[in-house]
Amino acid sequence: MDRRLHSSAFALATVCLLAVGCKPVGPNYQRPAYTAPQVYKEAGATAVLTPPPSPDNGAWKPASPSDGMLRGKWWEIYGDPKLNELEDRIDTYNQSVHQALETWMAAEEQVRQARASLYPTLSAGPSISYNKLSVNRPQNTNGSHGGNYNDLSLTGQASWEPDFWGQIRRTAEAANAGAQASAADMANVRLSLQATMAEDYLELRGLDQQKQLLDNDIAELTRQLDLTRRRLAGGVATEVDVAQAQTQLQQVQAQEIEVGVARAQFEHAVGSIADIKLPNFSIPPSPLDLKLPEIPLGVPSQLLERRPDIAAAERRAAQANAQIGVAAAAFYPNITLGSTGGFESTHAGTWLQGPSALWSLGAQAAQLLFDAGRRKSVSAQTRDLFEASASFYKGVVFLAFNETEDKLSTLRILEAEETTQHEAVLSAQHSLDISKTRYAGGVTSYLEVLTAENTLIQNQVTESTLKTRQFAASVELIRALGGGWDSSQLPK
Length: 492
Known about the structure:
492 residues; 4-stranded antiparallel beta sheet; elongated; 10% strand; 58% helix; Outer membrane efflux proteins (OEP); alpha+beta
């Protein structure tokens, strides 16, 4: 019996080695090809972009996630402690991030579930019964009386389906790629919330900057109204001058109120993203007096590694490729190995002794001979789905480059526009100074001062708006570049 047991164990070990050594059926995954441009077309906003130097040989290098990238907490480049505090709350308190985290954790459990099929299943348990034989039982030819007896058994069973064709390995491969895609989805949700937080907060500070300008204008217009009233009392000005000054002051006051409405909405948005109870939340006024930060641009080929949405699409293409192997394995026979072993006796005293031992080893193979083309259809379907996933991946990459170029051009144009607008503010201020002098000397009417004042206010507001738009566009560019994330952060 020992020799037979040793022979059986050797045969089982041989089967295990064969199962491990067999190459999985189906194609091995190759990332869908996409040729990235050598340079960004719109990388022209020199004040805010830091392009990497070209290598010594003059050729752009391939993707390298560690070069020319923001890392980790990218929002810290703005140097705003309040923004840093709010951003740090997102991972801990935001429910969208928590939902994405739980979805990824569930996907990780699917990977473990798939890999568990690579190993045998084991079960064991005792069985105790007291039995009485029937006198009238079949094959009781000698007419013996019925008897009573115990049946005590302690047995274990093992069952294993060796992964000869790689179906289980391909299933685990697909599950792992799906989990990585889920992790990339979580990173994309996090990046979207972080960018929205930064953009809303900077927009809020931009409105504070506008309010500061309007407060200064209101103070100046109030002084002009007092001056006009004194000139009316002295017989120099007219009632029309006073009415015009009063109207201009009230218009700017109404404009300031409107800024307050927009600010409140941005404050609520920031509080919601940070998951702060809004009745207890407020952001003190803080005009946007920051310097626009320099953004490391990197080379275009790095974008394939930096964007979580690209990584998610690529991993789903890998998942679809693995499913081709799963479908291909269905054309091969299923082979199952089983064994049973334990002890059985009618008396407790001899239950766990050598003579009470029992065991069996067995194998079973089954091959599906006819299914009316079902397996062939499933196999063709998996290949079609892979091609669809590959096309989707290429589409995501194309849109990512398009989005990045859009944000680069926005920054470049806003930079030129803000420079021109600043000159316009200086010119409007100079015009107002001249008009005030002319009005004080009685050379012109108050209408000229009013017009110049209104022109200056509008140009100041426009300049402030352009500055805010530049900060918002810089956040959008960082988001388009992938923030501080890269594909090396995906779980293995």
